[in-house]
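#help-structures
NK: newbie question, is this the right format to request a structure? protein is Carbohydrate-binding domain-containing protein
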Amino acid sequence: MFKPENIDLHTDQKEQQKEFIQTFIIDNQPWISYQEQDVFANVELSFDNDFLYLNFTSMEKQVKAKYRDYNGKVHEDSCFEFFVRFDEDSAYYNLEVNIIGSIKLAYGKERFSRQFLPIDILKNIERDVFIIPLLKDDTLYIESTLNLKIPAKTFVYNKVTCLQNHKLFGNFYKCGGSLEKPHYLSWNHIVSDNPDFHRPEFFKLINVFKEI
């Protein structure tokens, strides 16, 4: 079962002390049937030799956080996702975390050939969660922030020890698969008939190769 070690759950923002390298706006809505005008999301990314830092933020009218287990179906909740491959590897990682910090991480070459990473590795990913109500243009939103501190050694299939020695290709996503009004947003655009984030052909170079 999911245990909340390495997670701080707050009702307001705490001061951010990190200087971020790059901001990615998650605003592509590739599938017309699921286009939602009231969901906003972005992620700030930075790294040092030992850790990758991802700070996700979203605003939406409805949120859901049902799943607590490690490697559970968090994509059905209000969820942030980061899919990434290293260098010339043909396989990639899918990191998925709902707004309360429940986490899934797997590796493989395509959607139906995934290998879940061990829970002991997932427990080493530090997570800070902030959830607050926010009034915008007389409309009530829920603002969710998820800060991740991911050890480089998490990416065990690539034997990553120093992030500066690798090129990263990937995509960022925001989704809510089982919400009353499901949504599927991406940073880089995807072309497919139905919602499908497991499309590595649409991964893009993430150019952050400068130490903070």
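mod (FA): yep, format's fine, and the tokens are attached above. The first strand starts at residue 7 and ends at 10.
NK: thank you!
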